[in-house]
Amino acid sequence: MSEGLEARLRAALRPVSPSEEFSVRLQERLTAAARPRRRAVALWFGAALAASLVLAVGIAHRASKAQERVAGLAARQQVLDALRVTNQKVDLAYLTVTSESRDEP
Amino acid sequence: MTADEQLARARAGDSDALAGLVREHQRSIYSIALRMLGNREGAEDLTQEVFMQLSAKIGSIASGEHLRFWLRQVTANRAIDELRRSTRFPMVPLDEEASFCHAAEDTDPLLQRQLDRLLAQLSAPARAVLLLRYQEDLDPVDIARTLDMPINTVKSHLKRSLEMLRSRCEVPAP
């Protein structure tokens, strides 16, 4: 009894097709909706590309500045080292000269 | 091309693939909408809204199986919401609508009309349960998942609806 009713329900509730007119209209609406979305995707892509370029240039500029600073510090260190060595040499020369003049009768 | 391949192409923005998916599922979705709401105009509006939503959310659909589940879930829930809040689609017998709905089918049109009238007397969730069970051939577990409903509620809707149909639908023996 129940199986008979269920079988009849299945038969009666088979899917039905919408009208052809509606199917065409639906496809047109979907196509129309997809167009602006593609444009929006292209716009977002362009904006993301521009932002990436700006970021890349910024990072490169910052890296170059950092490199210059490191080179400047190294040069400063070299000058300081040279001055220290020169200072030591001058001190040594002064000591030599003063000790020689003291030894003279 | 498999359903999953077609879905992958639709996700990548291929509008022909999306159109193919819509063509494949529109019969099932339209039928749920039509039998839930009881009129062609409402069913067409609902079907269109569901597929427009699909078009916007296609990126989040993982597989062909997920797509079928998502379409049924969105359609059934939207129809239930619509029936609950709107007087636009009153739950009245389908009558004349039934004749166009099933004209192409080979079932007895009188039985068809009788069933349509009885369907219209069910509550919105009970009608959704019955349609998913006998139109979409889902088992109670899948119906519970689709409608986000406890399995016992699904079984109870099915039992009560069948009892009601059996008592009221005096189906002539074939």
Walk me through the structure.
- The complex is a heterodimer of chains A (105) and B (174).
- Chain A is mainly alpha-helical and 105 residues long.
- Helices cover 90% and strands 0% of the residues of chain A.
- The N and C termini of chain A lie far apart (143 Å).
- Chain B is mostly helical and 174 residues long.
- Chain B has a domain at 1-90: RNA polymerase sigma factor, region 2, helix turn helix motif (Rna Polymerase Sigma Factor, Chain: A), CATH 1.10.1740.
- Chain B is 74% helix and 0% strand.
- The longest helix of chain B has 23 residues, at 15-37.
- Chain B is globular, with a radius of gyration of 17 Å.
- The interface between A and B is medium-sized, with 29 and 39 residues.
CATH architecture of one domain in chain B: Orthogonal Bundle
DSSP strand tally of chain B:
0
Largest sheet of chain A: none
* Proportion in β-strands of chain A: under 5%
- Domain count of chain A: the total is 1
- Name the helix and strand elements of chain B from N-terminus to C-terminus, one letter apiece: HHHHHHHHH
CATH-defined superfamily of one domain in chain B: RNA polymerase sigma factor, region 2, helix turn helix motif
Helix content of chain B: over 70%
Query: Structural class from helices and strands of chain B?
Result: mainly alpha
The helix/strand class of chain A is mainly alpha
Unreliable parts of chain A = none
- Percentage of residues in strands of chain B: under 5%
Number of helices of chain B: 9
The largest sheet of chain B is: none
Structure summary, number of beta strands of chain A: 0
- CATH names the topology of one domain in chain B as Rna Polymerase Sigma Factor, Chain: A
Overall 3D geometry of chain B? globular
Helix content of chain A: over 70%
Q: Which H/E pattern describes the elements of chain A?
A: HH
Mean pLDDT score of chain B: 84
Question: What is the radius of gyration of chain A?
Answer: 44 Å
